[in-house]
Every structure is written in structure tokens, then in C-alpha cells.
Amino acid sequence: MWSNVIGQERIVKILKNIYNSGRVSHAYIFYGKEGTGKDAAAIEFAKLLNCENKIKNEEACDTCRSCKQIKSLNSSLFQFVTALPSSVKRKQEGSDKNYSKESDSPVVNLKKEIRELYFDELSRKSEDFYYKIRIPDANNIRIDSIRYIKKLIYFTGEKGKKKIFLISGADDMNIQSANSFLKILEEPPGDALIILTTSRLNSLPQTITGRCQRIRFDNISISNLKKFILQRNGNIKPENAEIYASIADGSIQKCKEIMDSNFLEFRDKVIEYLSALVLGRNLAIGRIITYVVSDKDKGKVRQFLMMLLLWFRDTCISKYNIPGLIINKDKSERIENFAKKFPAETHKIIETIEDALRELDLNLNTELMLYNLTFSIKALIKN
Fold first, then answer.
1. ∠194-248-328 over CA atoms, to 5°?
2. Of 28, 50, 181, 185, which shows the fewest CB atoms inside 10 Å?
């Protein structure tokens, strides 16, 4: 039901209008920041298109056979496609020729433990449409996944029903996959709908984006995020919920990551790190960096960098005397004192941290990266 799509009233209205107009396109791209509900809206739209007992002709019932099957991501009318690791039986990553076992889903050829992990992740996704599937070494949407779509899309479907293909994180398609997918877009069957979701629209080839209708998703408002937080965990204080919502930066996914971590305690580590940095306490800096990288968890390193980024963002805002825009509101006095006592080239520091966040995705040495970042920030602060 549309209530499963959080804070995207404009998008819901657009999709309702598309359905009621009877002019559903063959392909859409849902794009916007990660965690804004693109997959969730695509699944709800798929349910509406095939629902057997529609509510007011604009909402899926969630109780009929079709709705239940699509909701479980296990339906002959709905295929969920995402990045996968290399298969055991590696197919030729080139032309569409010589695909010897087209009847198999690409998941069949994964290693047993990876296949089990995939189905476990898919189950979690069916329970929470905002959940991001994470599988080791799943860096690309592989060409065998696209070939499998190509096989299924031309099958005769159920009368009066739509065959729907959701390609989640479509920007993960490699060149071969994108070229193969383009052939589907050139001659799509009338009873099929393809929805691509992406947080990096510019990473998709123009030959693909030009053949799809694009729908931009908005960042989720702080009020909607705060409401989500308090509904999910009634034990969180409203003032802390507002901090979490502000830091989540319009993303449900980031909001959940913050809630599931010991955020306030971890933020104290960031403040401790900054204090050690400006006072030249190198041993303390080393201990904190070791703590951040000790679990070899990039999510933890990313959270550290994000909180560091937000701190300098807030110091920048405090210089312009706009207290209402400060995210770490409970630390506003300390932020103001930091900005006055330690003048810095804040914009350059923010750019440096953003570069570090990009480096993090390249599987580089995170400990070395944090030390280099420390030296760079220190050089940009006038003690």
C-alpha cells in the first residue's frame, strides 16, 4: 500500500495519475538520493498494476494472491534484479551468443553459501522495501541477469497482467550488461514494464536514459524522518530523534544506520579526535583511528567521516550566524567556540573529507587514508 512509501507524496500522486491515465510507459527510471524509497515505490506500483481488488482504483489491496506474491518478491509477474558476484559457471562476458543455459536464473550458478545469503537478503528486502541488499563482491549487474530478463520478458504472460522487471541500482550495470539491456529497450513487449532505480543517474548511458521516462525522488523531510524514527523506536527522546533526522540527510537508509549504531557515543569519539588534532596529541589520534578501523567495517569508517563532515559543516554555518541550520544542535555552543578558537579553511576541509569518502569505496587502506586525512585537515586549521 502507498503508506509503505515514506514522505514521497508527490511521487505517489504521479504514479497514481500514470495508472489512472492508462498510459503506462514501457520503462521508467526512478532516481534520487539513496534511501529515498525508489525500490519501495516501484514495488508498490507493481502491486497496483496487477492487484485483483484495487482500493478506489488507485491503491493495491495487499491481500490478493498477486499482491502477496509481489510483496514477497516471489512472483512470475515480478522479477527483482540486483548486483551479483561472479558465478561458479562463469558465462562469456561478451555478446549474447553462446548462452548455453538460458533457462537458469543467474542466482542458480552462485556458490552455495552466496546463494543462501542472497535469498536471506531477498527475504529481508521483502520485509522492508528500504533495506539495501549487501552481498560480498557483488559489484556489477551481470550480463547473465540481463539475458535472463531478455528470456522472460518475451514469454506470454497472464491475460490482463503486466510483467514487471525492477533493476535495483541500475548504475551497477557493466558495459556488456548495458549494451545487452539496450536491445530489450529497443523492442519491448507491450505487456512488460521495466523500472530502473538509481542514485547515480549520470552513471547510466544516455542511450538507456533516453529510452526511459525519468521520475526524480525528493529527499525525505526532517519531519517525516523524525516521525519514522519515533515510530520505529519509541524509547528515543524527541530531541535526539531530531538530531538523527537532521544527520540522515533525507535518507531512510542512512537514518536506520544511525539508529542501529551507538551514534551519540561514536560522535563523542569524533569530538575527541578533533580535540586531539588541534592540540597535537598524536598518540590519542592514533588510538582513535585504530578504534575506527579495528573491525575492518567500512560502514563504521564511513559513519566517522560523515560525522566529521557534519561537524565542519556546522562550524561553517556558525560563522554566518544561522543557528537554525546547525545539525548538531545539542553541541551548538561547542561548535561555535571551536569555529572561533580554531579558524580554518572549512570549505577545503569539507572537500577533503568528501574525497576521503569517495576513496573509501575504492577498497584502499582505510587506516592510511585516515592518517592522510588527519594531516590534510591539520594543515587547513590555523591554531
1. 165
2. 185
CA angle 43, 246, 233 (to 5 degrees): 65
Q: Which residue has the cell 514501457?
A: 26
Domains of the chain, first to last: 2-216 (3.40.50.300), 261-379 (1.20.272)
Rounded Cα distance, 54 and 74, in Å: 20
Cβ atoms of 225 and 256 closer than 8 Å: no
Whole-number Å distance between alpha carbons of 351 and 309: 9
SS3 label, residue 105: coil
In the numeric block, the cell 561514536 is attached to 266
- Report how far apart, in Å, the C-alpha atoms of 5 and of each of 36, 71, 159, 199 are: 9, 13, 28, 17
Summarize pLDDT for 156-203 with one digit per residue, the tens: 777 888 999 999 999 999 899 999 999 999 888 888 999 999 999 999
Q: What is the pLDDT of residues 213-235, one digit of tens each?
A: 999 999 999 999 999 999 888 78
Q: 366-379 and 298-319 helices cross at what angle (nearest 10)?
A: 10
Residue 4 class from Cβ within 10 Å (0-12 exposed, 13-18 middle, 19+ buried)?
middle
Query: Which of the four pLDDT bands, split at 50, 70 and 90, describes residue 119?
Result: very high
Instruction: Summarize pLDDT for 138-153 with one digit per residue, the tens.
Output: 889 999 999 999 999 9
**How, if at all, do strands 78-81 and 163-168 pair?**
parallel
Closest C-alpha among 186, 169, 170, 177 to residue 147: 177
* Burial (Cβ within 10 Å: 0-12, 13-18, ≥19) of residue 300: middle
User: What is the grid cell recorded at 210?
Assistant: 533516453
Alpha helices in 22-111 (DSSP H): 38-50, 65-71
pLDDT single digits (tens) 261-290: 777 778 889 999 999 999 999 999 999 999
- Say how far apart CA 70 and CA 76 lie, in whole Å: 9
Query: Per-residue pLDDT for 100 more than 50?
Result: no
Give the mean pLDDT of 118-132: 93
C-alpha distance from residue 59 to each of 114, 226, 233, 353 (Å)? 36, 26, 28, 43
Give the three-state DSSP class for 194.
strand
